[in-house]
């Protein structure tokens, strides 16, 4: 079973509307590293608890969900809120008291929990982190939910630049900026249905030129551009293949 993107939204500093994203994805250029969305959709008392990364993720989610019915939501981030975690670890190393609220909001499922509470939404929620395969893990989980009968599933991908102590763990990419994108998916079997599979070995047709755009944004570009295929190699062991069957 394949899927189709019923609606999508994304947010990064300087990029808000889908049309602006379409233009940027066709010809990427550096974006500002600073910027925070207003997140006016969330009640003020709850919004004050959300750090920048959470606001970015939730802004994209609200925009993609809009007036659509309730749906399972999968929040996926390779690193999560490392800035908050770093602050907590620094306080711990200095034997300083930790904030229970800050700790509770540092885990990967905190953003999804706040979104569920703010909307009064009792649908299933999940938090996913799977290294450089985080996007594929989220869409594989979404495919399973659709196959089990969910009429629609929301996938939210979000990340921000890694704090200084851990930058050597982050892939060397040309552009590093906070971002989030969300897709509302439905099951599909037609010619434009998107299929995702994992194959052993290198891609069938490797890219002729190195690609510095982060993997999550390459996935978004495939999803919204109408391209027929994109392959994401992982080391030399396997490759994820995204394709639309003709």
Characterise this structure.
With 246 residues, the chain is of the alpha/beta class. Helices cover 32% and strands 22% of the residues. The chain contains eight helices and eight strands. It has a five-stranded mixed β-sheet with strand order 1-5-4-2-3, sandwiched between helices. It has a three-stranded antiparallel β-sheet with strand order 6-8-7, with helices on one face. Strand 7 (229-234) and strand 8 (238-244) form a beta hairpin. The protein starts with a strand and ends with a strand. The mean pLDDT is 88.
Structural class comes to: alpha/beta
How would you describe the shape? Answer: globular
Largest sheet: 5 strands, mixed
Strand order of the largest sheet: 1-5-4-2-3
Rg, rounded, reads: 18 Å
The SSE order reads EHHHEHHHEHEEEHEE
Secondary structure tally: strands = 8
Cα distance, first to last residue?
Answer: 15 Å
Mean pLDDT: 88
Helix content: 25-40%
Q: Which consecutive residue ranges, at least 5 long each, have pLDDT under 50?
A: none
The total count of helices amounts to 8
């Amino acid at each position: 079973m394949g899927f189709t993107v019923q609606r999508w939204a994304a947010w990064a500093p300087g990029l808000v509307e889908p049309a602006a994203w379409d233009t940027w994805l066709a010809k990427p250029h550096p974006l500002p590293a600073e910027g925070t969305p207003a997140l006016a959709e969330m009640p003020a008392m709850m919004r004050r608890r959300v750090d920048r990364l959470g606001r970015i993720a939730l802004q994209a989610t609200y925009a993609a969900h809009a007036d659509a019915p309730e749906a399972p939501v999968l929040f996926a981030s390779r690193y999560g809120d490392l800035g908050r975690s770093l602050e907590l670890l620094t306080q711990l190393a200095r034997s300083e008291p930790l904030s229970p609220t800050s700790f509770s909001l540092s885990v990967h499922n905190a953003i999804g929990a706040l979104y569920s509470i703010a909307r009064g939404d009792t649908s299933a929620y999940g938090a996913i982190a799977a290294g450089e395969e985080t996007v594929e893990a989220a869409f594989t989980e979404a495919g399973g939910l659709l196959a089990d009968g969910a009429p629609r599933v929301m996938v939210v991908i979000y990340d921000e630049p890694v704090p200084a102590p851990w930058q050597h763990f982050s892939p060397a990419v040309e552009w590093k900026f906070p971002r989030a994108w969300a897709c509302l998916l439905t099951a599909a079997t037609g010619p434009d249905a998107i299929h995702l599979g994992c194959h052993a070995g290198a891609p069938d047709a490797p890219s002729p030129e190195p690609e510095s755009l982060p993997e999550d944004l390459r996935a978004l570009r495939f999803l919204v551009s109408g391209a027929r295929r994109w392959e994401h190699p992982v080391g030399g062991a396997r490759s994820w293949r995204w394709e639309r069957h003709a």
